[in-house]
């Protein structure tokens, strides 16, 4: 396994050298637990102790993202006051030619802080540190062999303030607050920051609590986000989005759609439906077990054949 970060994360003993039964080959949640991570800075260094794996990407194609809980043991002056609190470390391998997630988030936060839009800061992720590592010899060999057909990637490390999943909410009123906040934030991103998210899903809608305990919805994970530009082309050959929440147009490959604001709003609607309706209901469960044009047809039926879903929706929406 060539992560390209072996000199930054010390794993002892090296777990990848220990043979595992075939049913235990996926990463254990404590794979990185206790490992130190030292990140260089111009005025010192940032030291963290890694903890539990919160998320990892299934599959060998794509970013190979890991999100790991961590605590800050040594903080530079610009992070004064952050020492000790739990944060998260995101390790990923995005396409080399696309704008990085930390860059897009930092630019959006800078725009919000300069104008009369400070309220947006509560609804965006906070980047504490980010860096990209140079290409490894392995990647250079792949470039030499496959040439233009190989999509070059970089190893990216981002340290972010901790957020919490919607599943941690217990008050229905807080859930409504989260959806309202995320909708307002996303509208601001499109109208003012000129960004499209392109991967709105249950996992990417999170929350933080303010100093008074108030819940603030946060739109997270800008891996697929792009600047709004009619002449731009996708930076990856892979379709963007999380399948159960993709808009119908995006699911139907025959349409060759350009991702628009309305597609993300449609995804937000599907997140709302999946959140408030039982996932075991056949009408919803099929969204998670189908793909492509089949899922597109299922979603068309959801809108055009109300007799199939009336009982499902009316249980949760007044006058549904």
From TrEMBL:
Matching PANTHER family: FUNK1 11, FUNK1 6
Cross-referenced Gene3D superfamilies: Transferase(Phosphotransferase) domain 1
A Pfam match: Pkinase_fungal
Protein name: Protein kinase domain-containing protein
Entry-linked SUPFAM superfamilies: Protein kinase-like (PK-like) (SSF56112)
A GO MF label: ATP binding
The Protein kinase domain, residue ranges: 55-320
Source taxon at top rank: Eukaryota
